[in-house]
Amino acid sequence: MKYQKLAVLFTFTALLFIAMxxxxxxxxxxxxxxxxxxxxxxxxxxxxTSINSPWQSTAMVNSVINSxxxxxxxxFAQGGAWSNATMGNISNYNATxxxxxxxxxxxxxxxxxxxxxxxEAGIGINLFNFADGGNADHDEGYVIRNLDLxxxx
Length: 153
Known about the structure:
It contains two helices and seven strands, in the order αβαββββββ. It is of the alpha/beta class. A four-stranded parallel β-sheet has the order 1-2-4-6, with no helix packed on it. The radius of gyration is 17 Å and the shape is globular. The N and C termini lie far apart (about 55 Å).
């Protein structure tokens, strides 16, 4: 019995690491108002999967958000700033509490250090909208950290 429990624990741990190994990291950099003076814009034509070729807009994030895999990360450049930065409605059924989608910051090559500033100026518009209209469907597993979020929503 003891070995069966150990085997189950080992299998669960291995599956967790395999799931995490498939995770992608996406880099975003925009230089809107209040950005670091050394900020270097990304480009939405980039792959977004390299610190050297980040996307620029949160519109790119919005275009992939609901199809991201568990464990994927969306990283915003420290010292960067975004305006009208809503991510839209977020309903991702791949993420879990144990393997969440993470929104965080990264240190860009041009040297920014301040928390990324994401601003949504629209009245009542949320930067991250986790509301699910109609009959709610269960989703979970989001982590938002190290970001300066500003707006009315």
